[in-house]
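Quick one, T. Sequence first:
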Amino acid sequence: MNNQAHVIKPRLPEPPPSADKLLAAVRAAVEEIKAKDVVEIDVRGKTSVADHLVIASGTSTRHVKSIADEVVKFAKKLGAQPLGVEGEREAEWVLVDLGDVIVHVMLPRVREFYALERLWSVGDRQPRSAADVDDAG
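Structure tokens:
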């Protein structure tokens, strides 16, 4: 008979998924639930809050909420617990904070009003050269 004590080692928590894996899960989620006009913005170097923003539109408040719910579901499958989900009650603009990836799901009129793409894309475009200006007329 073996009298040795059986040692149970504590299970270490899994490391959080990488930003790339989170982004892939978000892409899959918004595609699965048919989000409209999905835009990804790389914000590394612009903010320390996140590496990527994903902005998508829903066709109704119910669709906006469903998209956000799907993003949360896909993230949890990866082992990522959202840091926060805001705006679910009104569902005109739902923000899902996954840490390195922040997802904004909005009704089109809300998205147009706040224009997050323009806000976060300032300075991304290459300055037009003198030749470009001359060619434009």
